[in-house]
């Protein structure tokens, strides 16, 4: 009895890692399932396998993997809808989707059905569907760009696909091979790109929104045994250069967006609905987004649903590009964030030091007071690289320099230009993935 391990004995280091290791385990399981040759497992074994996992038992139905090559195509009438002019398209009053969407149904016993490309339109769900009650939803956001060379490009789509797998498994929805998701995304933009993102509009983009939801129509708090993956493409306004820059208001003292042990690192719907109240209040006071702080120390984490960067001079005079770290799993590992970090590390080496660490709003306020803030910006797919001109915190404002032309600081401008060149094909780079077979 004395040597027996009770749960309490594990209360030390091990417990801290439980969720992350469960998640890592499922991601690894998915990789094994999809890299193996049998193609029968679907990496969704926790409580879901029902003993069908390998098809080893001759009577068990085969569990199908997500397989883009099985796509069933139902074309929309290409003359039914007209592409709006550019002004209407990006007015932001409504989300105008392209002709098609892709959907794919999953069931625990049989796995993923053949994906379907079909006319864009409403989904059919039971009012008791899991997603409507228990927030079993996650999503992605990426853009397809019409290059100045006439080509369509995605920007590092494999990162979105991998992140979607992670988010999906975090909320106990079914796993899939991220490469198959990437293929489905590519197919949708290859089909709708020529009409909705015509060659006559170089320098423009469409926004792609993949999502997975739990559709099982059974109430009860449990992992769904039915799910739906869907992908749409739509217009979206440009939000990367609000007049006068983006103004941030720090989060209310009694509210956190995400917490250590929470799920801020996953793109799950549950992170966003509850944040809207503070955002709405801030908007009413003329601010663009909330700068989400964390803990009594007031660590700066993210700006709205974008990552946040400050360029400042240290007291010793060193120029640093500072952003919150990933290791505490508070913030989302943004594709744009990663790209900014990687570009700054290589192309601004010797000029700017890139620092991923926890830093507080007090450090930012102090740097502001001492005139050490060089510039600041938010980064993400929706807002792209959006210059920040002001931070309001507990009754005080910090003004942030916006460069000579007043539109953005020189480092922000450089980084933004590098990214745009890759996205729109002015620079041939492995991050800009050309969509062939348009
Ligand atoms: C989507 C998102 C971002 C930006 O990620 P990207 O991959 O760069 O688009 C940042 N923070 C949050 C909370 C997000 O939801």
Description of the structure:
The chain has 438 residues and is α+β, with helices and mostly antiparallel strands. It folds into 2 domains: 18-234, Aminotransferase class 4, branched-chain amino acid transferase, N-terminal domain (D-amino Acid Aminotransferase, Chain A, domain 1, 2-Layer Sandwich), CATH 3.30.470; 246-423, Alpha-Beta Barrel (D-amino Acid Aminotransferase, Chain A, domain 2). Helices cover 25% and strands 24% of the residues. It is built from 10 helices and 19 strands. The protein has helices at residues 13-16, 18-35, 86-89, 130-134, 157-170, 178-196, 276-284, 335-347, 361-369, 410-423; strands at residues 72-73, 100-107, 111-112, 116-119, 137-139, 142-146, 152-155, 205-214, 226-234, 246-250, 289-294, 299-303, 306-313, 319-323, 353-356, 373-380, 384-393, 396-399, 432-434. The strands form 2 sheets. Strands 1, 2, 3, 4, 5, 6, 7, 8, 9 and 19 form a 10-stranded mixed beta sheet that branches. Strands 10-11-12-13-16-17 form a 6-stranded mixed β-barrel, surrounded by 4 helices. Helix 8 (335-347) links the parallel strand 14 and strand 15 (353-356). Helix 2 (18-35) packs across helix 5 (157-170) and helix 5 packs across helix 6. The site of pyridoxal-5'-phosphate has 14 residues, from strand 13, helix 8 and strand 16. Belongs to the class-IV pyridoxal-phosphate-dependent aminotransferase family. It is an enzyme of class 2 (transferase).
Element layout with pairings:
Layout: H1 13-16, H2 18-35, E1 72-73, H3 86-89, E2 100-107, E3 111-112, E4 116-119, H4 130-134, E5 137-139, E6 142-146, E7 152-155, H5 157-170, H6 178-196, E8 205-214, E9 226-234, E10 246-250, H7 276-284, E11 289-294, E12 299-303, E13 306-313, E14 319-323, H8 335-347, E15 353-356, H9 361-369, E16 373-380, E17 384-393, E18 396-399, H10 410-423, E19 432-434
Helix pairs in contact: 2-5, 5-6
The structure holds pyridoxal-5'-phosphate.
């Amino acid at each position: 009895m004395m040597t027996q391990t009770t749960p309490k004995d594990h209360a030390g280091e091990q417990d801290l890692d439980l969720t992350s290791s469960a998640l890592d385990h499922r991601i690894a399981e998915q990789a094994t399932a999809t890299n193996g040759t049998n193609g029968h497992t679907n990496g969704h074994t926790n409580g879901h396998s029902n003993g069908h996992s390998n098809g080893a038992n001759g009577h068990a139905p085969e569990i199908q993997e997500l397989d883009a090559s099985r796509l069933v195509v139902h074309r929309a009438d290409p003359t039914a809808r007209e592409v709006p002019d550019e002004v209407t398209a990006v007015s932001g009053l409504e989300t105008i989707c392209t002709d098609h969407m892709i959907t794919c149904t999953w069931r625990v016993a049989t796995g993923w059905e053949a994906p379907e490309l079909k006319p864009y339109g409403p989904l059919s769900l039971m009012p008791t569907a899991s997603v409507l009650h228990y927030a079993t939803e996650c999503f992605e956001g990426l853009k397809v760009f019409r290059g100045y060379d006439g080509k369509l490009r995605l920007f590092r789509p494999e990162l979105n696909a991998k992140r979607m797998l992670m988010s999906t498994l975090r909320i106990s929805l079914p796993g899939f091979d991220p490469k198959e998701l990437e293929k489905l995304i590519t197919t949708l933009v290859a089909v709708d790109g020529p009409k909705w993102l015509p060659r006559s509009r170089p320098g423009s983009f469409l926004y792609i929104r993949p999502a997975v939801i739990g559709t099982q129509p059974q109430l009860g708090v449990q992992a769904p045994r039915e799910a739906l993956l869907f992908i749409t493409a739509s217009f979206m306004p440009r939000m990367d250069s609000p007049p006068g820059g983006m103004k941030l208001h720090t989060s209310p003292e009694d509210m956190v967006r995400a917490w250590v042990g929470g799920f801020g690192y996953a793109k799950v719907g549950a992170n966003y609905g509850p944040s809207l109240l503070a955002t709405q209040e801030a908007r009413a006071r003329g601010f663009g987004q909330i700068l989400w702080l964390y803990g009594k120390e007031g660590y700066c984490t993210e700006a709205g649903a974008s990552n946040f960067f400050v360029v400042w001079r240290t007291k010793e005079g060193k120029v640093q590009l500072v952003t919150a770290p990933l290791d505490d799993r508070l913030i989302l590992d943004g594709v744009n964030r990663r790209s900014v970090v990687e570009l700054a590390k290589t192309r601004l080496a010797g000029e700017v030091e890139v620092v991923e660490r926890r830093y507080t709003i007090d450090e930012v306020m102090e740097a502001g007071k001492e005139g050490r803030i060089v510039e600041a910006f938010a980064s993400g797919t929706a807002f792209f690289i959006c210059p920040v001109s002001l931070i309001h915190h507990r009754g005080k404002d910090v003004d942030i320099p916006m460069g000579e032309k007043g539109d953005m600081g020189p480092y922000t401008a450089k980084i933004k230009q590098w990214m745009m060149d890759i996205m729109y094909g002015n620079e041939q780079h492995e991050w800009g993935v050309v969509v062939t077979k348009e």
